RNase adaptor protein RapZ
Amino acid sequence: MQINLITGISGSGKSVALRAFEDAGYDCVDNLPVTLLENLIVTLEKEKSERVAVAIDARRGESIAELPSILENLRRNHQVRIVFLNANTNTLVQRFSETRRRHPLSTNAQPSQSATLIEAIDRERNLLEPLRTQAHSIDTSNLPAHALRSWISDLLKDKPLGLSVIFESFGFKKGVPSESDIVFDVRCLPNPYYDKDLRPLTGKDKPVKEFLEKIPEVVSMEGDIIQFIDKWLPHYIADGRSYLTVSIGCTGGQHRSVYLVNRISEHFRAQKDLAALQLSFLDRHRELDSIPTVKL
């Protein structure tokens, strides 16, 4: 059975993610008590269910500490993937302010122990840290709901086996993605933005690609990044990781970083010797994916 655990910080988009799983045909359960997870899987096995998505978060309090060991037991017979939704504190505060919701950890049994919103968020981060370190993490700080649904859809195409390598482009002006394991700064490269004909285009468009591929520094940067990943990828695999996020950033996340992510991803997808390692590759373009697609 494919078991997907959806967890993360309150206000980061777990409900949106769970609906994306439901739309994809998964059996979905929200806010399940930790102690009932194994019983749920046994029941679904009897019903011949093959795919399930379960949302469990810090609303379950200290019992969340039992979850890593439960998941380890489930991995003996099932494929288990953890999807961790995250966002920076300023974004979370703004979202709670806009919705006027209370954070689930902002009050305890005794009124005198009530916490501020930021204190509740910090406590939640501490409770969930053991899960975050072994999860596929998505930073939704600058990600609208439609982009999150799209990223979840891409994730569902990837089997939860071996190491999944995510290549993500981003713009430094909106901050570094919090899920990044390796970050490359390519702002030193010539910027197509200053060409008025290339400015409205992206690194996916042919004129921009032709512009960048003729620049020796761009070619050299591409080769150096590939060489670095080639050298250290076996070490990340040996470390037993499930996910590795390689983020490449330029100023706006529109031209140079997009071009290099696509080029580098294409390189590794073409390496036949990596297939035996059960590696999979995902591409993300944070700033481009945040722009809604208008259907005419």
